[in-house]
Write a structure and sequence with these properties.
By secondary structure, the chain is mainly beta. The chain has one helix and 29 strands. It folds into four domains: 2-104, Immunoglobulin-like (Sandwich); 112-186, Immunoglobulins (Immunoglobulin-like, Sandwich); 207-284, Immunoglobulin-like, CATH 2.60.40; 293-373, Immunoglobulin-like, CATH 2.60.40.
């Protein structure tokens, strides 16, 4: 009868069940956990009492008999194995068995990456290329870091660098959980040209990003050799769901309202007929103090409405305007205020998710607030 139970357990396991259990006696308790780590599997028996004999059959033609309730086995090939444990306790005169299917997976296919660099040393224009090797058809992502700061995405990074040194790293991740990294160190001289060089061929586009009037959050964006392009479109993607644009023309100016990293992209048609695009990351590390006084709004962030408390010295109308992150007016109203504290509530349920700026004006006073719609 015991032999019949053992044969039945193996048959059920081979039929696709993850675990089967044949109980010969209520005294013994077969069963185990299997933890797979690469090609090695750690087995831990449920019955850890002393004096119990554990016979392990690993499904690859090998076996082991031990008094220990834990055992590690290394498989020489990847695949699916039916593992059987037989528990024998001669002191209690019992015997029990359990089987389980253990899957030893193949490791993910390898990936590799190395960075190459070319430069125009006169203008300090550096081109970094990520040379990657991945499984055909697999998705991959390349992130660029310059001195541990995110500098861009994609297989190629174009930067004008002066001073130094710079540690430029490309980080590769794939859809099958493989990762690789390659770094290169450069140390340019300290001089910088007055203007960047034009693109080397007719199917590329480049632009400059220059702080305006030494302000940390105002930038001028200008195409290099702009007469070669038409249908020019600029966009800005950044923190707090910012998606500004489109802006048109060979150049435009933009004032950033928040600190953080922003991706500036430009697309255009080159006159010979090719569609071109380029992008560049910039970092806004500070924002000048706004004119007028700042007033708190609550709750912030909010999904339905926000309230502000305005204290007036006399009765007055309060003009309220709400602007989105691109400077467009999305809400306006006028309320009557009385002397003392006045609570003003604004409905924002119909506004898209994002950052908004509130401006309140009464008499010669202007108050400003910033809110986040979630």
């Amino acid at each position: 009868m015991k032999k019949l139970y053992f044969v039945l357990s193996l048959f059920l396991a081979l039929s696709g069940l993850t675990a089967v259990h044949a109980q010969d006696s209520s005294v013994c308790n077969a069963g185990f956990q299997a933890n797979v780590g690469g090609t090695s599997v750690f087995f831990r028996a449920s019955d850890s009492l002393p004096g119990v004999r554990h016979n392990w059959y690993f499904g690859d033609g090998t076996s082991k008999s031990t008094d220990s309730f834990a055992v590690t086995h290394t498989y020489v090939a990847y695949g699916q194995y039916v593992v059987t444990q037989i528990v024998i306790d001669s002191a209690r005169n019992c015997r029990d068995s359990a089987s389980q299917v253990v899957y030893v997976p193949a490791p993910p296919p390898p990936c590799s990456l190395f960075v190459t660099e070319t430069s125009d040393t006169v203008h300090h224009l550096y081109t970094f290329v990520a040379n990657i090797s991945v499984t055909p058809g697999a998705a991959d992502t390349v992130r660029w870091m310059i001195n541990d700061t995110l500098a861009g995405m994609g297989d190629t990074l174009l930067r004008t660098l002066v001073g130094g040194p710079y540690n430029v790293c490309a980080l590769l991740t794939t859809s099958y959980s493989c990762s690789a990294q390659s770094c290169i160190t450069i140390n340019p001289q300290d001089s910088v040209p007055t203007t960047p060089p034009p693109p080397p061929d007719t199917c590329t586009i480049g632009f400059t990003a220059t702080p305006k009037n030494h302000s940390p959050n105002q930038y001028d964006f200008t195409l290099i050799d702009p007469q070669r392009y038409d249908s020019i479109i600029w966009r800005i993607i950044g923190t707090d769901s910012l998606n500004a644009g489109p802006f048109h023309g060979a150049n435009f100016k933009y004032t950033f309202r928040d600190t953080g990293y922003y991706l500036i992209t430009v697309t255009a048609n080159a006159r010979p007929g090719c569609f071109v695009s380029n992008d560049q990351w910039i970092h806004i590390d500070s924002i000048p103090a706004p004119s007028g006084n700042f007033i708190s709004s609550y709750p912030n962030p909010s999904s339905t409405q926000v309230s502000l408390t305005v204290t007036l010295s006399s009765s007055s109308n309060v003009d309220i305007r709400v602007y989105n992150s691109m400077g467009g007016e999305v809400l306006s109203r006028t309320v009557s205020g009385s002397p003392g504290a006045n609570q003003i509530t604004l409905p924002i349920a119909n506004l898209p998710v994002g950052i908004y700026y509130i401006e309140l004006q009464y008499g010669g006073t202007i108050l400003r607030s910033k809110i986040q719609k979630i």
